[in-house]
Amino acid sequence: MVLSDRDIQKALASGRIRISPKPDYSRQLGSCSIDLRLGAKFRVFEHSRFAYIDPMSPLAGNMTTEITVKQKESFILQPGDFCLATTMETFRLPPDLLARLEGRSSLGRLGIVVHSTASVFEPGWNGVVVMELGNLGRMPVALYPGMRICALTFEELTSPALVPYNKKKSAKYAGQRTPLPSKIAEER
After folding, report:
1. pTM for this entry
2. Is 186 an annotated catalytic residue?
3. How many Å from the N-terminal Cα to the C-terminal Cα in the chain?
4. Which of 13, 74, 128, 129 has its CA 20 to 30 A from that of 150?
Protein backbone atom coordinates (compact mmCIF):
# COMPACT_ATOMS: atom_id res chain seq x y z
CA MET A 1 0.00 0.00 0.00
CA VAL A 2 1.35 3.43 -1.01
CA LEU A 3 1.15 6.11 1.69
CA SER A 4 -1.04 9.14 0.99
CA ASP A 5 -0.12 12.71 1.89
CA ARG A 6 -2.07 12.28 5.13
CA ASP A 7 -0.18 9.07 5.99
CA ILE A 8 3.19 10.64 5.12
CA GLN A 9 2.47 13.55 7.47
CA LYS A 10 1.45 11.13 10.25
CA ALA A 11 4.57 9.02 9.73
CA LEU A 12 6.78 12.12 9.89
CA ALA A 13 4.99 13.50 12.96
CA SER A 14 5.36 10.19 14.84
CA GLY A 15 8.99 9.71 13.79
CA ARG A 16 8.21 6.54 11.84
CA ILE A 17 9.80 8.26 8.83
CA ARG A 18 12.49 10.81 9.61
CA ILE A 19 13.51 13.52 7.16
CA SER A 20 16.03 16.19 8.07
CA PRO A 21 15.79 19.10 7.60
CA LYS A 22 12.04 18.95 8.09
CA PRO A 23 10.16 19.35 4.79
CA ASP A 24 8.00 22.38 4.04
CA TYR A 25 4.67 20.66 3.42
CA SER A 26 3.26 23.59 1.45
CA ARG A 27 6.04 23.24 -1.15
CA GLN A 28 7.22 19.65 -0.87
CA LEU A 29 4.24 17.43 -0.01
CA GLY A 30 2.35 15.88 -2.92
CA SER A 31 -0.75 13.70 -2.85
CA CYS A 32 1.33 10.56 -2.30
CA SER A 33 4.94 11.75 -2.27
CA ILE A 34 7.37 14.20 -0.74
CA ASP A 35 9.77 16.25 -2.86
CA LEU A 36 13.42 16.43 -1.89
CA ARG A 37 15.83 19.21 -2.81
CA LEU A 38 19.11 19.03 -4.65
CA GLY A 39 22.19 19.12 -2.46
CA ALA A 40 25.47 20.80 -3.32
CA LYS A 41 27.63 17.68 -3.81
CA PHE A 42 28.13 16.03 -7.20
CA ARG A 43 30.42 13.19 -8.28
CA VAL A 44 31.60 13.40 -11.90
CA PHE A 45 33.53 10.91 -14.00
CA GLU A 46 36.97 11.88 -15.23
CA HIS A 47 36.42 10.34 -18.65
CA SER A 48 39.44 12.06 -20.16
CA ARG A 49 41.82 10.33 -17.70
CA PHE A 50 40.60 6.75 -18.09
CA ALA A 51 39.96 4.66 -21.20
CA TYR A 52 37.20 2.52 -19.65
CA ILE A 53 35.62 1.45 -16.36
CA ASP A 54 36.35 -1.97 -14.95
CA PRO A 55 33.72 -2.35 -12.21
CA MET A 56 35.68 -5.17 -10.53
CA SER A 57 38.83 -3.07 -10.20
CA PRO A 58 39.42 -1.31 -6.87
CA LEU A 59 40.51 1.67 -9.00
CA ALA A 60 36.93 2.20 -10.23
CA GLY A 61 36.24 4.44 -7.21
CA ASN A 62 39.19 6.65 -8.19
CA MET A 63 37.68 7.50 -11.58
CA THR A 64 35.46 10.20 -10.17
CA THR A 65 35.84 13.53 -8.45
CA GLU A 66 33.49 15.09 -5.92
CA ILE A 67 32.49 18.67 -6.63
CA THR A 68 30.72 21.02 -4.21
CA VAL A 69 28.65 23.78 -5.80
CA LYS A 70 28.36 27.03 -3.90
CA GLN A 71 24.92 28.31 -2.90
CA LYS A 72 23.24 30.34 -5.69
CA GLU A 73 25.62 28.84 -8.26
CA SER A 74 24.61 26.13 -10.71
CA PHE A 75 25.91 22.76 -11.82
CA ILE A 76 25.63 22.43 -15.59
CA LEU A 77 24.64 18.95 -16.75
CA GLN A 78 25.74 18.55 -20.34
CA PRO A 79 23.76 16.55 -22.94
CA GLY A 80 24.54 12.84 -22.67
CA ASP A 81 26.39 13.38 -19.41
CA PHE A 82 25.97 11.47 -16.17
CA CYS A 83 26.84 12.28 -12.57
CA LEU A 84 25.93 11.34 -9.04
CA ALA A 85 24.30 13.95 -6.83
CA THR A 86 22.81 14.08 -3.35
CA THR A 87 19.71 15.57 -1.84
CA MET A 88 19.85 18.20 0.90
CA GLU A 89 17.70 15.97 3.07
CA THR A 90 18.68 12.78 4.82
CA PHE A 91 15.98 10.27 5.63
CA ARG A 92 15.47 7.16 7.74
CA LEU A 93 13.01 4.34 7.17
CA PRO A 94 11.59 1.85 9.65
CA PRO A 95 11.78 -1.92 9.00
CA ASP A 96 8.24 -2.03 7.56
CA LEU A 97 8.44 0.71 4.87
CA LEU A 98 10.33 1.09 1.63
CA ALA A 99 10.75 4.29 -0.39
CA ARG A 100 10.86 4.72 -4.15
CA LEU A 101 12.72 7.51 -5.88
CA GLU A 102 10.76 9.26 -8.61
CA GLY A 103 11.75 12.00 -11.03
CA ARG A 104 9.89 15.27 -11.32
CA SER A 105 7.90 15.82 -14.50
CA SER A 106 9.04 19.44 -14.83
CA LEU A 107 12.69 18.32 -15.03
CA GLY A 108 11.88 15.27 -17.14
CA ARG A 109 10.44 17.65 -19.73
CA LEU A 110 13.91 19.22 -19.93
CA GLY A 111 15.56 15.81 -20.43
CA ILE A 112 16.75 15.30 -16.85
CA VAL A 113 16.43 11.83 -15.31
CA VAL A 114 17.20 11.26 -11.63
CA HIS A 115 17.87 7.53 -11.60
CA SER A 116 18.94 4.89 -14.06
CA THR A 117 18.49 1.83 -11.84
CA ALA A 118 18.64 2.62 -8.12
CA SER A 119 15.09 3.67 -7.33
CA VAL A 120 14.30 1.56 -4.24
CA PHE A 121 15.40 2.40 -0.71
CA GLU A 122 15.06 -0.69 1.43
CA PRO A 123 13.46 -0.78 4.87
CA GLY A 124 16.02 0.38 7.43
CA TRP A 125 17.64 2.90 5.05
CA ASN A 126 19.39 5.88 6.64
CA GLY A 127 21.24 8.53 4.64
CA VAL A 128 20.92 10.97 1.79
CA VAL A 129 19.44 10.07 -1.56
CA VAL A 130 22.18 9.64 -4.12
CA MET A 131 20.71 10.23 -7.55
CA GLU A 132 22.06 9.01 -10.87
CA LEU A 133 21.48 12.20 -12.85
CA GLY A 134 21.51 12.11 -16.61
CA ASN A 135 20.74 14.62 -19.34
CA LEU A 136 18.91 12.89 -22.18
CA GLY A 137 18.23 16.20 -23.94
CA ARG A 138 20.23 18.07 -26.54
CA MET A 139 20.93 21.19 -24.47
CA PRO A 140 22.86 21.72 -21.23
CA VAL A 141 20.65 22.20 -18.15
CA ALA A 142 21.56 24.29 -15.09
CA LEU A 143 20.75 22.60 -11.78
CA TYR A 144 20.75 24.60 -8.54
CA PRO A 145 21.30 23.40 -4.97
CA GLY A 146 18.02 23.78 -3.09
CA MET A 147 15.75 23.20 -6.10
CA ARG A 148 13.19 20.40 -5.83
CA ILE A 149 14.81 17.58 -7.79
CA CYS A 150 13.02 14.32 -6.97
CA ALA A 151 10.19 12.78 -4.98
CA LEU A 152 9.93 9.85 -2.61
CA THR A 153 6.89 7.62 -2.36
CA PHE A 154 6.50 5.17 0.52
CA GLU A 155 5.08 1.65 0.53
CA GLU A 156 4.19 -0.54 3.49
CA LEU A 157 5.50 -4.09 3.65
CA THR A 158 3.16 -6.89 4.70
CA SER A 159 5.44 -7.39 7.72
CA PRO A 160 8.68 -5.81 8.95
CA ALA A 161 11.80 -6.92 7.07
CA LEU A 162 13.66 -9.74 8.78
CA VAL A 163 16.98 -8.02 8.06
CA PRO A 164 16.57 -4.28 7.34
CA TYR A 165 19.21 -2.59 5.19
CA ASN A 166 21.00 -1.00 8.15
CA LYS A 167 21.51 -4.48 9.68
CA LYS A 168 22.89 -6.16 6.53
CA LYS A 169 26.61 -6.92 6.38
CA SER A 170 26.47 -6.06 2.68
CA ALA A 171 25.01 -2.56 3.23
CA LYS A 172 27.78 -0.72 1.36
CA TYR A 173 26.00 2.64 1.27
CA ALA A 174 24.33 2.74 4.70
CA GLY A 175 24.57 6.16 6.30
CA GLN A 176 26.08 7.84 3.25
CA ARG A 177 26.18 11.64 3.33
CA THR A 178 27.99 12.29 0.04
CA PRO A 179 27.69 10.77 -3.44
CA LEU A 180 29.94 7.76 -2.92
CA PRO A 181 31.43 6.07 -5.99
CA SER A 182 30.40 2.53 -6.91
CA LYS A 183 31.53 -0.13 -4.48
CA ILE A 184 30.69 -3.08 -6.71
CA ALA A 185 34.33 -4.27 -6.55
CA GLU A 186 33.71 -5.09 -2.86
CA GLU A 187 31.32 -7.84 -3.96
CA ARG A 188 34.14 -10.13 -5.15
Report:
1. 0.90
2. no
3. 36
4. 13
